[in-house]
Amino acid sequence: MPWVSGVAVADRRACGWNRVSLPIRFTSDVTVPLSILDLALVGPGQTPADAFAASVAVARRAESLGYRRVWYAEHHNIPAIASSATSVVIAHVAAHTRVIRLGAGGIMLPNHAPLVIAEQFGTLEALHPGRIDLGLGRAPGTDPETFRALRRSESSADAFPEDVLELQGYLAGHSRFRGVDAIPGKGARVPLYILGSSLFGARLAAALGLPYAFASHFAPEELLDAVAVYRREFKPSAQLERPYVIAGFNVLAADTAGDARAQLSATLRSRVKALLGRGRSMTDGEADLLLATPAGQRVLKMTTCSAVGTPDEVRRDVEAFVDHCGADELIVVHPAQRLEDRLRSVELLAQAWELPARAPPGD
């Protein structure tokens, strides 16, 4: 296992790819669209308000650089992530942008009644027509104790396929409950995406004819199998004629390799503190020691699908990953701890990928 700036880095071959052994065919005519998954990170000494301001800044920069969409993830009881009220965050960012698509990546549907989600995203679509996506996951997005605080039961996830169909009915204007409509939401036809990190989500997305987004940015183990199953079993639907795969990937792009490695060190330490620190303060040295434990190694494995380095290095790694897994779109996490580093990574990746920049819309 290699080491970067004193911090162990998981072997990226666990993600199913290796830049050295794969052909690199980076040309402008084979690129796929780039999008962003924003966790609304709350850094040390920051408040949720700071995180939301940063999310607006990232979305505005992504919009100007030609990224396709920005998604926000539902997580609960994690001090470093402020996107728990996902639909509210989407509304806030949408009010400060013009054309970029925004959505949930995703809403953890077992935590909610499908009617409520249909109303929320129907409202967003009415306010920002043609710009709203709705990604759906069946995990609780939190720990077991918080799951209970959400008034959910262990069987809630079992109803996920039926809940997706119920939600789909509300948005299509064909409610499965006589006399019950989502208002707003009825007929809004907000596009749905199934999120997952296993074969279950792949099969459900294929059966329903929906796009499939795989969480390879933190759970890469079944990526290739899931994509193969999804493409093999896909059935066309009113929303989608052919399979469409979005794959998650981490990127830390910087002007120098040394700066990128330093950002990686800070990111890994922050992640292990958040996931394993149990609320106590921890020095960088203590975080490094924790990363070397079996629990720390599991945290490291969450970052195996990553590119860290200069724009040229990142471009080659991203192209190799896309070429290997066959993604139709890449949704990128830029996990740098400082906003200025995150914005620079967003910018450098867009330049390396040759995204067509958008002209600022007129008032």
Commentary on this structure:
This protein has about 375 residues and is of the alpha/beta class. The chain has a domain at about 35-190: Luciferase-like domain (TIM Barrel, Alpha-Beta Barrel), CATH 3.20.20.30. The protein is about 40% helix and about 15% strand. The chain contains twelve helices and eleven strands. An eight-stranded parallel beta barrel has the order 3-4-5-6-7-8-9-11, surrounded by nine helices. It has a two-stranded antiparallel sheet with strand order 1-2. It is globular.
The low-confidence runs, each spanning 5 or more residues with pLDDT under 50, are: 1-14, 16-30
3D shape: globular
What's the total helix number? Answer: 12
CATH architectural label of one domain: Alpha-Beta Barrel
The CATH class of one domain is Alpha Beta
Radius of gyration: 20 Å
